[in-house]
Amino acid sequence: MSGPPPLELHNDGTYVDERTDFVLMMKLAEENMLGGDSRLLHLDDWQELERFYHHPLAKQAIPWGAPPSKNVTCKVEHSVFFEEDCQGRPHMLYIDQFAEPQNLAQGLYLHQLGESLENDPYVFNVQVPVGSMLVVQNHCWLHGRDKFIESPGLRRELLRQRGHFC
Description:
Layout: E1 7-10, E2 22-31, E3 34-35, E4 38-42, H1 49-53, E5 62-64, E6 76-78, E7 81-84, E8 90-92, H2 104-118, E9 124-126, E10 133-137, E11 141-145, E12 148-149, E13 155-163
């Protein structure tokens, strides 16, 4: 399938200084679209979680920034694995395109982590019909978008809501 590359697996809220516990993704409208399914991976299913979670750089602060189109001017620093839940399972905060590694070791760690996520056999696609939504716990689920074919008259309206549990 030709067209734009997939949107790689990530967590939302990586480059902002506010907590993003959940993400709601709803499809309001779609016309002339082929492909573009949502892609999901739960941390518990990721085959190489232990390798990356126990890596020496897993809890090292890394700067994260955003392009001007995001209207976020500040940079934040946090580690990829930043906390555990009440059962000791890791929580993750990662997006490849906004990481600003400070050295070769961080860059290699992030690159290898991204390759591992993208190639994991437990990544699965979900078609989201118009009027339907996905709601995910942001720090346990990574999400992305599969490739789609560009076509004349392509029209999509999506609603994204991010939130925080109080």
